[in-house]
Every structure is written in structure tokens, then in C-alpha cells.
Write a structure and sequence with these properties.
Blueprint (H helix, E strand, L loop, with lengths): L17 E6 L5 E6 L2 E5 L2 E6 L4 H8 L2 E7 L6 E12 L3 H16 L10 E12 L23 H13 L4 H16 L3 E7 L4 E8 L9 E3 L3 H9 L3 E3 L2 H16 L20 E9 L2 E10 L7 H21 L23 E6 L4 E4 L2 E4 L1 H17 L3 E3 H5 L13 H15 L3 E5 L4 E6 L3 E6 L1
Parallel strand pairs: 14-20
Antiparallel strand pairs: 1-2, 1-5, 3-4, 4-7, 5-6, 6-7, 8-9, 8-13, 9-10, 11-12, 12-13, 14-15, 15-16, 17-19, 18-19
Helix pairs in contact: 2-5, 3-4, 3-7, 4-7, 8-10
Length: 452
């Protein structure tokens, strides 16, 4: 009798590589290690086919295999007998497996070389624990996880929903979401990235990365975050272990003389030593609003139930973003008192580069693209006319900013600009003054310079 494979979910997270044995039609054996055996359901698993190697040929000739799995907490070992059924090259299973491999490939510069060719689905015909494998091991290892799971999902969803529903502005929503993740789940490293309109994602809210989090960028398709954005598919990866696997493949390609065809490895925002990563697309109204990315140094931080549960949360957050992004000026609400008091001090030099809409404070980079143009518009209005009060509607109607007519992500861009000013230029502040309105506070004289 085969037990339910879902009871052994930790074995399928890929924390420890699995040994896979196949044989050719003439009986010649072959044993290799695979980075992960994918759980499909309680009777089926899938193997990732990334190269036309001997394992794949053996399965085509002789559809029987055996794989050994290890529990990364208890170190118990299990042996599964498999029967190869089919190779899937499209569909939900293939897409789910492909996005993880694409993330590793893009980050290690192996796009086009290291990719999923097929998801090889196998039936589990026998399941057995290897007796005596843990002779002498302390029995307490088997009781590390409490009975009933790590958290009551309904209670956690209730807490998260309550915090999200109280937000009246986009920045409040993002702060409430990340605070809840840390308070309820203990996820201390998280970030929200939104599209910048130019094929990249930019971080507008983060936890656990200090002052280096906000403003970090990643291109669509690059790394786990970029792959999730491009495919709109949730993905979970083993962090440093997965990257080590990708780098090992890269080293073999370079050793074989193929290094000239590879792209440089891409540095991405986040922990350099992350052992587990989970990224979820924020999709509502059939539109990608951003990506929610979580990281941990614990390789078992994210379980299967986290992935399913947090997809529900991600949908709620995306719907709230969609709703709050439609907010504009409230004409009945007072904009607040002016807060600009340019002090008698040395001028603060701001330089705007017209070629890429980049703004520097002194010699230090501050912000670019649409947020850079917004800042330049504001500071010019302040120095030229003494204006301090501005509205979202006014920005949306300014053709120079180049915002799209629909779904312009203006609120996300304003959050990024406000946080970059808080981090890099505290002499200039953007103070909310009612829905769709804000006040510009400047405490030093400004020297504005434009360059090509």
C-alpha cells in the first residue's frame, strides 16, 4: 500500500538533492542526482528534463526508475519506485516547473542553455522507508513540527484581511501587509515591486533590507521575481542551493568552451544568502500590479500551504491596489497647510539629466524615470512660483510626464519618490494632505541644473 505522498511534503521541497536510478534497455544502470522531485498528487511525481541526457533516454527505452528522497528535518530516507507515464511540454504543471528553472537560468546568465524541455510525469508504484538508515539518531528529530500545522489559516486570513481593509492609501496598504507578514508568519524579509512602465520592476516597499530595499530594480524575466512577473505564476525556490546548481551547470558550459555564449550573472535585490524564496504575482482585473517577494535564511521557511494560502492574500492585496489606484482628488477635503520653509542655508543642488530622466542630489543618484520627472516638475514649480500644494489629478493631466491614460501606477511612483526622498534627501518631503493631494516641504534653498 502506498501512503499519501502529501504527508511527506518536506521531501519534495528540494532542500536535499535526490538520487535517481534508471537503466537502459540492455540493463545498463545509471544513477544521477536531481535537484528536486516535484509533487503532483498523492500517486504521481514529476522529474524535470533539462537536457537530452542518459536519464531521459533510459526512461524512453525502459520506463521504470527508482528515486530516494530525504526529509530535511528528520533525515529519514524513502525509496520510491516509478513508472514513466508521459512528458508534458505545456500546461499548468510545466509552467509551474518552468518558472523556477527560468529564474535560476536568468540569474546565472544561462537563459537559452538551462531551460525546461519537459515535465516527465511518473506514477509511484511502490513507497518504502529505508530501515536502519538513521541508526542511533535522536528520536526528537521526528517531532519538530507541531501537530495540526504551523498556524490556523482562517485566523491568519482574518488578521490579514482586517489590516488590509483599514488602509485608505496605497502606502498604508503596503505597510500593513508587510507588517502583518512579519507579525503573523515571522517573515522578516519581504518586498513589493511594481512595474515602472519600461520593462522593469522597482521596489516601493520592503522589510528587513534597511535603507537599501526601496528603489531596487529587476527586469521582467530576470531571476525569480522577474520570472514570476513575466509568467504571472507563483514560484518557490531554494535560494542559494538552486543558484549553486545553476552555477555548477554554468561552470561546465564554460569548461566545455561555451562561455562566450553566456550572459553575465545578474545581481538582484534581496538577501545574498537566502536559502528559501517565494514570489507571488499581484494580479487583479487581468492586470499585473506587481510582485510580492519573500525570502528567508531558513530553507524550510515556506511550505506548500504557505504557497496556496498566500496566493489568496496576494489576490486580496492586488484587488486593494487596483481599488486604491483609482482614487483621485477629493474636492471636498482641504489640502492642508503649506509646509515649505526654505531656510537660510547653502543651496541644495539638484541635477536633472534629460537623456534618462535621472535626478541627482549633489553627486548622489536619487531617482529616475517617471518619479524623476515628477520631482523635477515639483521643485521647478516650487522655485519658480513658490508652490507647495499639488494634486494627483494635476500630475495625471501633465503630458510631459508621459503617464498612460489608464492604469498609470501614479500612486506607486509617488510612494517610491517619497521614500527615496526620506532616505536620500530629507531636506525635501512630500506630505500627504488628503486623498489625492500632498504638500511639498523644502527646508533649504534649491539650485536646479539641467543637463543632457
Amino acid at each position: 500500500m502506498i501512503p499519501r505522498l502529501s504527508r511527506f511534503a518536506r521531501c519534495f521541497q528540494g532542500v536535499l538533492p535526490s538520487a535517481l536510478a534508471t537503466c537502459a534497455r540492455d540493463g545498463t544502470p545509471n544513477v544521477t542526482f536531481v535537484s528536486q522531485v516535484y509533487f503532483v498528487d498523492d500517486r504521481h511525481v514529476a522529474l524535470s528534463c533539462q537536457f537530452f541526457n542518459k536519464t531521459r533516454r533510459n526512461l524512453a527505452e525502459h520506463p521504470w526508475a527508482q528515486v530516494e528522497l530525504w526529509d530535511p528535518l528528520t533525515y529519514e530516507c524513502f525509496r520510491l519506485d516509478l513508472r514513466f507515464l508521459r512528458a508534458e511540454t505545456s500546461g499548468p504543471l510545466f509552467d509551474s516547473m518552468a518558472v523556477r528553472i527560468q529564474a535560476i537560468a536568468s540569474q546565472t546568465g544561462m537563459t537559452g542553455v538551462f531551460e525546461l524541455l519537459s515535465a516527465d510525469v511518473c506514477e509511484v508504484t511502490r513507497f518504502a522507508e529505508i530501515e536502519g538508515y538513521l541508526a542511533g539518531a535522536p528520536p526528537a528529530l521526528a517531532t519538530l513540527e507541531p501537530e495540526g500545522g504551523p498556524l490556523n489559516e482562517l485566523r491568519a486570513l482574518q488578521c490579514l484581511s482586517a489590516r488590509i481593509s483599514r488602509a485608505t492609501r496605497l502606502d498604508e496598504l503596503l505597510d500593513a501587509t508587510l507588517d502583518a507578514f512579519e507579525a503573523i508568519f515571522g517573515f522578516g524579509h519581504a518586498m513589493v515591486l511594481v512595474p515602472d512602465g519600461g520593462g522593469r520592476l522597482v521596489t516601493i516597499a520592503s522589510r528587513g533590507y534597511g535603507r537599501t530595499g526601496v528603489g531596487a530594480e529587476v527586469a521582467f524575466g530576470e531571476g525569480l521575481i522577474g520570472a514570476v512577473a513575466a509568467g504571472r505564476q507563483v514560484a518557490r525556490a531554494g535560494g542559494a542551493r538552486d543558484l549553486s546548481y545553476g552555477r555548477a551547470i554554468r561552470d561546465r558550459v564554460v569548461a566545455a568552451g561555451g562561455g562566450a555564449t553566456l550572459r553575465p550573472e545578474i545581481p538582484l535585490p534581496g538577501l545574498p544568502d537566502a536559502a528559501a524564496q517565494l514570489a507571488l504575482p499581484l494580479v487583479a482585473s487581468d492586470r499585473l500590479h506587481g510582485v510580492l517577494a519573500l525570502e528567508s535564511r531558513d530553507p524550510l521557511a515556506f511550505d506548500d500551504w504557505h504557497e496556496a494560502f498566500l496566493q489568496i492574500v496576494a489576490t486580496q492585496v492586488a484587488m486593494a491596489i487596483d481599488h486604491l489606484s483609482d482614487d483621485d482628488d477629493d474636492p471636498d477635503e482641504a489640502p492642508g497647510a503649506a509646509a515649505a520653509t526654505a531656510a537660510a542655508a547653502a543651496p541644495l543642488r539638484l541635477t536633472f539629466y534629460r537623456g534618462d530622466d535621472c535626478v541627482f542630489v549633489g553627486d548622489d543618484y536619487l531617482v529616475r524615470n517617471v518619479p524623476g520627472k515628477i520631482l523635477w516638475k515639483l521643485v521647478n514649480a516650487f522655485t519658480r512660483d513658490g508652490r507647495t500644494q499639488f494634486s494627483n489629478r494635476e500630475l495625471r493631466l501633465d503630458p510631459w510626464l508621459g503617464l498612460p491614460e489608464l492604469r498609470d501606477n501614479l500612486e506607486s511612483r509617488l510612494i517610491l519618490l517619497r521614500k527615496r526622498l526620506e532616505e536620500k534627501c530629507q531636506e525635501i518631503r512630500m506630505i500627504p494632505a488628503g486623498r489625492g493631494r500632498f504638500v511639498l516641504s523644502v527646508v533649504r534653498p534649491l539650485e536646479l541644473v539641467e543637463r543632457d
